[in-house]
């Protein structure tokens, strides 16, 4: 079967894709067609992470408040549209508090700390993001751009390995956040950051407002000579389907086993006692160490390649992707930082957004951070997807106000329920309705049938 590699190179070149990304895809494609795409990490290849490779957030020594000013650059991954919530613009433009979007909160944090801020945008999010950030002229500094662009890879027809050829955006896929290490080199951005005195990059998803810079972390990395630090959280039963951290037997280095790399049978992937840590996708990277690793790989970081099967308009395709956290294997001396769950508050569904909009979180004006109310725990929220799946539905059903969740431990809603303002929920609450109903103001606990 022909490889079609030159057809892909020609397609990417015609589309104006960065030559380095073309070279990278060519290598990935040849690995995929020769069966070298890493689709499984076997149980016999890994073991649990030993304690000596873990650093604990609460044990970090203090650092001066200005210890990381100017030497740490915050990079926010901002390529997602939030299509799972019915969005067609950058998810970071969602309102999280009245008049404030994810972008507003992140920008205010950067202005409060004085740290440089960059966004890794996609072709889909760049214009809207830059237009919104124009209201914060203080973010521009030292000749740095506000963003850099994630690459895009061509989709592969599963039947014959040829390029998908609709002639529009359906032909392309984002290459995963592992593309960070390639994209940041474009136009000399990585070298420019180092020349400006930036020593460390703090990388996190734009939809995770719990991930905030902490000057103790880069100070500890510098003192201990750690080139790469991954923030991890304890796995709970709710996390057992997701990936986990492990140690490779052969090279004695930390690694990630993602859900896409799970063996089909005979493994302990969901054993949260054996594999107790998951990647929050918040990373701290020594930029000088990153330069060295990239030079050794001629500009390409050798990451485990995932061949993800998809269907586009009825046509089976394969998307070649890499994960940013998988780079932990490429940095000798990399460690994992165990952090409290408060640093991992991603918004993947409307139920997550509801929690963030509630009185469980408040904006700290001095730091610009969105902080969880002291002494509270986050409730498990399960909203009926038939009626709450999209942000439009969420806004309509909570148009009068978001209920108080400070005393709520779990909320389940089934049916087309709208909420009045002044609703307080306590303990475990289940709200049921067979037809459109409005929950009046008041305090509720237990099961409520409307």
Record keyword descriptors for this entry:
single chain, 450 residues, alpha/beta, Spore Coat Polysaccharide Biosynthesis Protein SpsA, Chain A, UDP N-Acetylglucosamine Acyltransferase, domain 1, 2 domains, 8-stranded mixed sheet, 4-stranded parallel sheet, 11 helices, 26 strands, 21% helix, 28% strand
Short description:
With 450 residues, the protein is α/β, with parallel strands linked by helices.
Strand content: 25-35%
Number of domains: 2
Count up the helices. 11
| Radius of gyration, whole Å | 23 Å
Low-confidence stretches: none
* CATH architecture label name of the largest domain: Alpha-Beta Complex
The rough form would be described as globular
The number of distinct β-strands equals 26
- Estimate percent helicity: 10-25%
Give me the CATH superfamily of the largest domain.
Spore Coat Polysaccharide Biosynthesis Protein SpsA, Chain A
| CATH classification, class level of the largest domain | Alpha Beta
- The side-by-side strand order for the widest beta sheet comes to 2-18-12-15-11-3-6-7
Overall mean confidence score, pLDDT: 90
Distance between the termini: 62 Å
In this structure, how is the largest beta sheet organized? 8 strands, mixed
CATH-assigned fold name of the largest domain:
Spore Coat Polysaccharide Biosynthesis Protein SpsA, Chain A
């Amino acid at each position: 079967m022909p490889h079609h590699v030159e057809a892909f190179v020609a397609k990417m070149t015609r589309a104006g894709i960065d030559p380095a990304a073309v070279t990278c895809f060519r290598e990935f494609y040849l690995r995929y067609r020769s069966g070298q795409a890493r689709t499984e990490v076997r149980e016999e290849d890994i073991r649990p992470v030993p304690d000596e490779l873990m650093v604990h957030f609460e044990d970090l020594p203090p650092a001066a408040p200005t210890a990381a000013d100017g030497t740490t650059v915050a990079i926010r991954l901002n390529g997602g549209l939030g299509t799972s919530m019915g969005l067609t613009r950058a998810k970071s433009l969602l309102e999280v508090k009245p008049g404030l979007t994810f972008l507003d909160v992140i920008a205010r944090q950067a202005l409060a700390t004085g740290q440089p801020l960059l966004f890794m945008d996609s072709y889909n999010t760049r214009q809207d993001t830059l237009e919104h950030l124009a209201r914060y002229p203080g973010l521009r500094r030292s000749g740095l751009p506000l963003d850099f662009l994630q690459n895009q890879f061509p989709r592969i027809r599963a039947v014959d390995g040829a390029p998908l050829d609709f002639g529009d955006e359906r032909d392309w896929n984002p290459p995963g956040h592992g593309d960070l290490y390639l994209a940041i080199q474009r136009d000399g951005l990585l070298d420019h950051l180092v020349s400006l005195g930036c020593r460390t990059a703090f990388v996190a998803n734009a939809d995770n407002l719990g991930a905030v810079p902490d000057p103790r972390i880069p100070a500890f990395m510098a003192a201990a000579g750690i080139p790469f630090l991954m923030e991890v959280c304890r796995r709970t039963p709710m996390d057992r389907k997701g990936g986990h951290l492990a140690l490779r037997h052969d090279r004695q280095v930390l690694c990630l086993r993602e859900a896409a790399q799970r063996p089909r049978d005979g493994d302990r992937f969901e054993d949260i006692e054996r594999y107790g840590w998951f990647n929050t996708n918040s990373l701290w990277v020594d930029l000088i160490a990153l330069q060295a690793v990239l030079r050794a790989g001629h500009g390409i970081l050798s990451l485990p390649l995932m061949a993800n099967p998809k269907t586009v308009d009825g046509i089976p395709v394969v998307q070649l992707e890499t994960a940013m956290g998988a780079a932990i294997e490429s940095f000798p001396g990399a460690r994992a930082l165990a952090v409290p769950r408060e640093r991992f508050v991603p918004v993947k569904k409307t139920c997550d957004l509801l929690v963030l909009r509630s009185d469980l979180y408040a904006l700290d004006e001095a730091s610009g951070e969105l902080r969880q109310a002291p002494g509270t725990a986050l409730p498990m929220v399960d909203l009926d997807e038939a009626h709450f799946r999209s942000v439009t539905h969420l806004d309509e059903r909570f148009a009068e106000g978001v209920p108080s969740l400070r005393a709520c431990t779990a909320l389940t809603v089934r049916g087309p329920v709208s909420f009045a303002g002044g609703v307080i929920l306590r303990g475990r609450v289940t709200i049921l309705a067979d037809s459109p109903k409005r929950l009046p103001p008041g305090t509720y606990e237990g099961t409520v049938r409307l």
